[in-house]
């Protein structure tokens, strides 16, 4: 689990194919930037652009992960060298500064607007209707691994456009500063929203005893 509070901006330095076929994944080697790897062990989880990955190699200032072709097809920002948001997995005694984040990308969104408004930036993203049904005013969403608050939701025939206000600090210390209209972003819906939908979907049978074996 993660919190969506980015600990550092690292950089994908090397991409090595894990096989020769079109279905082969890749091994990413990353410069960890300011992320402290002293307490990271092989097998630990680190979120990269919001996608949970397993550390398979580590040095003092870099680490490597293997990414399947399926993950590459369903995410943005992992298939080419460049800056990425990094967060180590949450420990039981850590502060929960953002919200509960699993590191499982639910889908891609497309930036429709990213512009300065006063001292902040307005970020608008178009998501599919399947993801849009989980978005709510003042609810939480994860964008490229960053825990953010939804300021407005606009359901459209082509999907759901939602708006976020980014304070200067968030823009400065994450890769969100590189976004522009047309950019693809990784989205993860609020974990609680998943359970609410499940509860409502079976509410007609709630409280009924299980059938006898």
From TrEMBL:
Gene Ontology MF, one: riboflavin synthase activity
Domain Lumazine-binding, chain residue ranges per copy: 1-99, 100-200
InterPro entries (alphabetical): ATP_synth_asu-like_sf (IPR023366), Lumazine-bd (IPR001783), Lumazine-bd_dom (IPR026017), Riboflavin_synthase-like_b-brl (IPR017938)
Pathway: Cofactor biosynthesis; riboflavin biosynthesis; riboflavin from 2-hydroxy-3-oxobutyl phosphate and 5-amino-6-(D-ribitylamino)uracil: step 2/2
Reactions listed under catalytic activity: 2 6,7-dimethyl-8-(1-D-ribityl)lumazine + H(+) = 5-amino-6-(D-ribitylamino)uracil + riboflavin
EC number: 2.5.1.9
GO biological process, alphabetically ordered: riboflavin biosynthetic process
Protein name: Riboflavin synthase
């Amino acid at each position: 689990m993660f919190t969506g509070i980015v600990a550092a901006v690292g950089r994908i330095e090397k991409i090595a194919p894990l096989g020769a076929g079109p279905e082969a994944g890749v091994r990413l080697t990353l410069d960890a930037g300011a992320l402290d790897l002293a307490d990271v062990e092989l097998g630990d989880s680190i979120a990269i652009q919001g996608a949970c990955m397993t550390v398979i190699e580590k040095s003092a200032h870099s680490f490597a992960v293997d990414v399947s072709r399926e993950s590459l097809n369903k995410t943005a920002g992992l298939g080419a060298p460049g800056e990425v948001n990094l967060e180590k997995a949450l420990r039981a005694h850590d502060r929960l500064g953002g919200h509960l984040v699993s590191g499982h990308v639910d889908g891609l969104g497309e930036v429709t607007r990213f512009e300065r408004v006063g001292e902040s930036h307005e970020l608008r993203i178009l998501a599919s209707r399947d993801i849009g049904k989980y978005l709510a005013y003042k609810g939480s969403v994860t964008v490229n691994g960053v825990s953010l608050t939804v300021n407005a939701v606009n359901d459209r025939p082509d999907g759901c456009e939602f708006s976020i206000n980014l304070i200067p600090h968030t823009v400065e210390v994450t890769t969100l500063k590189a976004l522009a209209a047309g950019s693809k972003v990784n989205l993860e819906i609020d974990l609680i929203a998943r359970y609410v939908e499940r509860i409502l979907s079976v509410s007609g049978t709630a409280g009924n005893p299980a059938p006898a074996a």
